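EI: anyone free to look at a 123-residue chain?
SC: sure, send it
EI:
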Amino acid sequence: MTAPGSESQQLTFPNDENGDVLRRMQAGGDDLDRPRDIEFTVVFPTAISAEQFADVFRAMGYRVSVEFTETSEGYPWDVIVAKQMLPSHAEIGSFEDLLQSVASPLDGHNDGWGCFRQTSPST
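SC: here you go
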């Protein structure tokens, strides 16, 4: 038996890529009401553009890393920006918009996000 109000609320998400990921997370038992570091990857064609982008987000106080990975054809440089936040569709989309607005003039683009699963303390 669970205490009143302790059941995990089923959230609904838009039918897009972020909504699909959030639905899978929720179905897998992730407690989407728990904040965590979400790592956003933005890819660039050159080390110079990747570092310029990274410097902007470092100056804002984010934890940032730059890596040569070659995982995206033509965009071998990954910049990973970590933000402590709730994994909500609106917040993720808003931060992706900010990332893209800085990346576009540097010929970069968003390449996804990820985070570690968080379960509720009672599970």
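EI: Helices lie at 17-27, 47-59, 89-103.
SC: 👍
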